[in-house]
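Consider this record:
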Amino acid sequence: MATTCDDDFPTLYSNPIVSTVSPHATYNINDTIWIQGRTSSRAYNTTTRDSIFNDVNLPFCSLRVYKLVLPENRLNTAIAIDKFGFIQAKGAFTPLESCNGGFAIEPELSQDSMSYIYKLGLKALAPGDYMIRADDSTINNNNIHTEISNKYQIPQYLDYIEMTSCYGNSDIQISTAKQLYFFTIL
């Protein structure tokens, strides 16, 4: 009699998406901030113990855009997705609920089939200090311009950004975060 075990079904482990953002700390209204992401199209298969082409467990991430605000009730950000226009260059983008302030990204397979990639432009529409937060991804810029956040620090929670979403508030430590990027629109 044959039985089915969990071990009979492969588990695929893929690499996270690594994103980069245009490197400047300051932009003008109508400038475009480019965000690009890439991950391998291969995943580790636990059954074969080998790297295989990943067309099942496709990579996914989301980006959220916040405006930095002076702290109030422990919040020092406000959802700011409406302060930008979007240019979809590569990949598919789906808006998240308005209370989450961002969009889901499904990268597309590159021409050489070696990577899944996305490219998105944020066209600045309003002045202010802003932050991009990448979920399920890392931002790999050498300088993420954390100094922009200094004047928005919460006195009892220095080095933290507090965000709100549909599901409540969350915070993240600025100095250790790998998914934040700060910039100013003049």
User: Anything to note?
Assistant: The domain at 11-183 is CATH 2.60.40 (Immunoglobulin-like). Confidence is low (pLDDT under 50) at residues 1-6. Residues 68 and 149 are 7 Å apart (CA to CA).
